[in-house]
Write a structure and sequence with these properties.
By secondary structure, the protein is of the alpha/beta class. The protein folds into two domains: about 5-165, HUPs (Rossmann fold), CATH 3.40.50.620; about 180-270, Alpha-Beta Plaits. Helix content is about 45%, strand content about 10%. It contains twelve helices and seven strands. The protein has helices at about 5-15, 30-45, 60-70, 85-90, 95-110, 110-115, 135-140, 145-150, 155-165, 190-205, 230-235, 235-250, and strands at about 20-25, 45-55, 75-80, 120, 210-215, 220-225, 255. The strands form two sheets. A four-stranded parallel β-sheet has the order 3-2-1-4, with helices on both faces. A three-stranded mixed β-sheet has the order 5-6-7, covered by helices on one side. Strand 1 (about 20-25), helix 2 (about 30-45) and strand 2 (about 45-55) form a beta-alpha-beta unit. The protein is globular and about 55 Å long. The two termini are about 25 Å apart.
């Protein structure tokens, strides 16, 4: 059912006004951008967007988040997060996101006095409540609010609201952290994240958009692009260039997933492939 953006905007802003003051976990994606916009409208200078920076953040995403926060007009703070210093995170079990979000929310709680905020909000929407998302457990542990979910806004409604507010990320593809590309059980390291980031940036430079480069044991890359882009990727000029660049980055094997791009494909190993987890 199509949502009325004006009504959704009013509901969201009214909810966040009740927070009094708020720190928004701000990745620069469409969900957190809508929450940040609502926070700015509802709370003004009592709202702040906080972006975590680490090796798991893809190249260009921090700069994009800074620019977007400026466009929204919300106060913006960047914090260094230390999830890669935690064995529980780098071991890369199915609960990896729990440890990442715990690190971020702990830092936000610690900074509450400095930021002069009482509430913490994330960008979880209604669709996320049915997904396999260990990060939601971390949110619950730290009493983090999810305004989009509380207002019963799903992903489609969030994009409509972002377009209503003329946010340039309204149609931005999901861009989860680089660690989500590493197969469960394979340790997350800065070197592997750099390999993945470099590989994805190279594919984008060739004109591919919705894509993932998954890291598997033995320094193997598994490329996912939409089925309609597979022929373009396997054409001789592109295929040879991709193979050479991926090997330069450190991959020993370069493979293509014939099923095409699929968010959350790593969860097949957990028997969770039926869930629309965005990874």
């Amino acid at each position: 059912m199509k949502t009325d953006p004006q009504a959704a905007a009013s509901s969201l802003v009214e909810l966040m006004a009740g927070f009094g003051s708020c720190a928004v976990a701000f990745s620069g994606g469409v969900d957190s951008a809508v929450v940040a916009k609502a926070a700015q409208l509802a709370l003004g200078s009592a709202a702040v967007a906080v972006t975590g920076r680490s090796a798991s953040l893809a190249a260009g995403e921090l700069e994009a988040a800074i620019e977007l926060a400026s466009l929204i007009g919300i106060r913006h703070v960047v914090v260094e997060t230390g999830e890669l210093d935690q064995v529980a995170y780098t071991a890369n079990g199915p609960d990896r996101c729990f440890h990442c979000k715990t690190e971020l929310y702990t830092q936000l709680e610690t900074l509450a006095g400095q930021l002069q905020t009482r509430a913490i909000a994330n960008g979880a929407n209604l669709d996320d409540l049915g997904d396999y998302r260990p990060g939601m457990k971390a949110a619950a542990n730290h009493e983090v609010r999810s305004p989009l979910a509380e207002c019963r806004l799903d992903k489609a409604a969030v994009r409509e609201l972002a377009q209503f507010w003329e946010l340039p990320v309204w149609d931005k593809p999901a861009m989860p952290c680089l660690s989500s590309r590493v197969a469960y059980g394979e340790p997350v390291t800065p070197e592997r994240l750099a390999m993945i980031d470099g590989a994805e940036q190279f594919l984008r430079s060739l004109g591919f958009k919705n894509l993932r480069v998954r890291y598997h044991r033995g320094d193997m890359a598994r490329i996912e692009v939409p089925p309609e882009a597979i022929a373009q990727l396997t054409a001789t000029p592109a295929r040879e260039a991709i193979s050479a660049e991926f090997r330069r980055l450190g991959f020993r094997y370069v493979t293509l997933d014939l099923e095409g791009f699929s968010s959350g494909s790593m969860n097949r190993a957990l028997g969770l492939g039926q869930l629309p987890v965005v990874n």
